[in-house]
Amino acid sequence: MAVTNTKAVGIEEFVRGLEEIPAARFTPEAVYDYIRAHPIAPASLAPYLYFSPHNYTRNLIHKNDRFEVIAICWEVEQVSRIHNHRDQHCWMLVPIGKLENQNYRVCDRNPREQTCRLEESTTVLISPIAPLAVDQDEPVHQVRNRKEYAARAVSIHVYSRPFNTCEVYSLEHGKYYDVELSYTSEYGKLCAGEKATRAEL
Questions:
Q1: With 0-12 CB in 10 A as exposed, 13-18 as middle and 19+ as buried, what is 165?
Q2: Which end of the chain has a smaller Cβ tally under 10 Å, C or N?
Q3: pLDDT (0 to 100) of residue 6
Q4: Domain boundaries in the chain?
């Protein structure tokens, strides 16, 4: 569905609006309606845009007990690992560029052996006029900045509640395992040991 409010807001205003949603109403539907009605002005993201030729970058914008907001920066052909969100809610919007979201169905899961089989499910294009709420029935997915898009992309992810580990899945080996999550930058400052370049808009 297309965005009905075409007036873009700055990222700080976007975050304040999320904070004003009462905890009891911080539901998949309500947050999706909010992000669909409040596209983000790309220029306001400048402090958080770090790119790396080696991997997509995770840049923390805001975090509290209820939710966190992260800017993820993608060079052309960069993809995420296939992963889940620890049963937390996730919404994605793409103020810059576009991305493909590939969902997977998890079959024959064996927690003892940490094995499973994956089947491709739905594929969705995420763009400035088409945000996404991650499907809670099929939360395992992969995000891709495909070669044919021929442009960098920036996605804004809202996670509720915040989490610091996730499960990653290997199609080739039929295995899944836990990984710890980290940030490339926090609140506009590059984290120690990270190598990335701030983008010029």
A1: exposed
A2: N
A3: 64
A4: 11-194
pTM for the full predicted model: 0.94
Strand runs labelled E in 48-192: 50-51, 57-63, 68-74, 82-83, 89-96, 99-110, 115-126, 132-133, 141-144, 153-160, 165-170, 175-180, 185-186, 189-190
Q: What helix, strand, coil percent values describe the chain, rounded to 5?
A: 15, 45, 40
The helix (H) or strand (E) run that includes residue 197 is strand 197-198
Q: What is the CATH number of domain 11-194?
A: 2.60.120.10
The CA radius of gyration of the chain, in Å to the nearest whole number, is 16
Give tens-digit pLDDT for 75-124. Answer: 999 999 999 998 899 999 999 999 999 999 999 999 999 999 999 999 99
Give every residue of the chain whose pLDDT is below 70, as ranges.
1-6, 200-201
Residue 15 contacts residue 62 (beta carbons within 8 Å): yes
Residue whose structure tokens are 């805001």: 62
* pLDDT computed for residue 4 by the predictor: 46
Residue with tokens 């024959």: 108
For 115, the 3-state DSSP assignment is strand
